[in-house]
């Protein structure tokens, strides 16, 4: 029987295995290169993989996510590893963050692309408020090149440990991507559909200026940026006041 799911609710355990640990290790290494931070928040933290790596260096690390099931996995791992990371449930579309609470906020794996463009301004506003002076915001977004040249009729499947997955990605319109993901186990089949929205670089950089952030670095997969063929762009910005 095929089970419909929302926000990874029914197959968080399986989805968690689709992202290679090396991705988080590379990202954590890059973040750590910016120096010491006292209070770190990872938005859309999923099962906490990045949080645990950052906790190896930083004293206080928190993660928020919309999925209770992802956070349940994170809490179990947190307990087993004795990491002391704080996790809480919150929708990225309705952030409730205290003023001057963090000196580093991260949001990776194109999580901002799951937010409709008309909500991005509000997210930047709340992050600016939550960051301390000179605090960093490190995030990534998918590009127009990705939707125009890469995801057209994209398909991938693989067998991993105790399950198989089938992933279809298609362009819905000039700014919308549809992900159709099925997980098949020996006992069940799960199915989810998710949408992502392209936020143009011009708009992102307007928001950076609007909220008085300083652009520290802009790059593709932490390599030299080729803006004509960048599928995902990483931004490192710093609060200016």
Describe the structure.
- By secondary structure, this protein is of the alpha/beta class.
- A hairpin with a 2-residue loop joins β8 (163-173) and β9.
- Residues 1-9 have low confidence and may be disordered.
- The strands form two sheets. Strands 4-3-2-5-6-12-11 form a seven-stranded mixed β-sheet, with helices on both faces. A five-stranded mixed β-sheet has the order 1-10-9-8-7.
- It has helices at residues 12-15, 21-32, 49-55, 68-81, 117-130, 144-150, 201-210; strands spanning 2-4, 39-43, 60-65, 86-89, 102-107, 131-142, 154-160, 163-173, 176-185, 189-197, 213-220, 232-239.
- Helix content is 28%, strand content 37%.
- It contains seven helices and twelve strands.
Give me the count of strands.
Answer: 12
Q: Biggest sheet: strands side by side, in what order?
A: 4-3-2-5-6-12-11
Order of helices and strands: EHHEHEHEEHEHEEEEHEE
Determine the number of helices (DSSP H or I, runs of at least 4 residues): 7
The residue-averaged pLDDT reads 88
Q: Terminal Cα separation, in Å? A: 55 Å
Helix content: 25-40%
Radius of gyration: 18 Å
- Strand coverage percent: 35-45%
Structural class: alpha/beta
Low-confidence stretches: 1-9
């Amino acid at each position: 029987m095929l089970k419909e799911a929302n926000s990874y609710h029914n197959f968080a355990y399986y989805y968690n295995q689709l992202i290679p640990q090396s991705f988080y290790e590379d990202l954590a290494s890059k973040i750590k290169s910016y120096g010491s931070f006292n209070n770190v928040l990872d938005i859309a933290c999923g099962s906490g993989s990045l949080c645990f790596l950052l906790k190896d260096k930083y004293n206080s690390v928190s993660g928020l996510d919309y999925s209770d099931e992802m956070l349940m996995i994170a809490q179990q791992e947190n307990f087993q590893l004795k990491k002391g990371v704080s996790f809480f449930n919150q929708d990225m579309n309705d952030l409730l963050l205290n003023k001057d609470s963090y000196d580093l906020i991260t949001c990776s794996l194109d999580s901002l692309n799951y937010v409709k463009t008309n909500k991005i301004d509000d997210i930047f506003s709340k992050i600016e408020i939550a960051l301390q002076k000179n605090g960093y915001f490190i995030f990534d977004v998918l590009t127009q090149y990705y939707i125009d040249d890469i995801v057209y009729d994209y398909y991938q499947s693989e067998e991993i440990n105790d399950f198989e997955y089938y992933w279809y990605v298609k362009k819905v319109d000039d700014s919308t991507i549809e992900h159709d993901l099925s997980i098949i186990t020996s006992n069940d089949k799960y199915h989810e559909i998710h949408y992502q929205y392209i936020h143009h670089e011009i708009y992102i950089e307007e928001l950076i200026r609007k909220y008085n952030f300083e652009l520290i670095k802009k790059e593709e997969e932490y390599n030299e940026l080729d803006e004509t063929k960048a599928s995902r762009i990483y931004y490192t910005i710093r609060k200016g006041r």
